[in-house]
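Q: How do we represent a protein-ligand complex in a form that can be generated token by token?
A: Start from the inputs.
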Amino acid sequence: MIKLYDFLPCPFGQKVRIVLAEKGLSYELVEVDITKGENRRPEFLRLNPYGRVPVLIDEDTTVYDSTIINEYLEDEYPEPPVLPAVGSSALRARARLFEDFADTSFTPQVGQLMLEMAKPDAERDPERVQRLHQSLGRVLDYLNHELQGQQFLASEFSIADIGFAPRLFVLQALGIEAGQNRGNVEAWMNRLLERPSIANVKGLTAEPIAGV
Ligand SMILES: N[C@@H](CCC(=O)N[C@@H](CS)C(=O)NCC(=O)O)C(=O)O
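Then emit the structure tokens for the protein with glutathione bound:
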């Protein structure tokens, strides 16, 4: 049976759990509490030298990093797919580009805003909050543009949408109405929430994780 080492509030672990749910794969969840440093234990560092969750073990195969885990799951368990079909190279590239964009330019910025918003008012840096609102607003405007005439970011539902899902639905709690004046984003979010894999993913929270 597949084993997933994860910390439920981790957005990268959530990406993997959404794919596992989409593919109907059962797995044993091994919780690694990174707030208690469990990810720094030698036995965990032997699984992932970076000491980060998620890590997936399937029989003799150990894979870490959410993007690489999801590629592994797609290769090993291709049905139902979470990438456009082999041969649709341009769409596959588009899906991967969006996943990478979510991981580098959206998820961490939402994490920074979570940290800022969790501070008492007197300690919060309003300029930083404003900068983060502006940069996230630009990302959402871009997504709104890219979703024009499309149900999902890479035509069919894929890792592109999954990359954004973990942090998309906590924005409201941070004071950002993602779908306001962005009709394509609003419709996309509603479409995403229709999927049990996303609606039921555990750990969606606007509480910050130290260091993420
Ligand atoms: N690129 C990695 C990032 C994973 C990551 O940053 N995980 C965080 C929790 S959300 C972690 O384990 N942090 C602990 C640490 O870096 O010490 C992925 O996509 O899996």
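Residues 7, 10, 12, 34, 39, 51-54, 65-67, 103, 209, 211-212 surround glutathione (CB under 6 Å). Residues 126-146 form the longest helix (21 residues).
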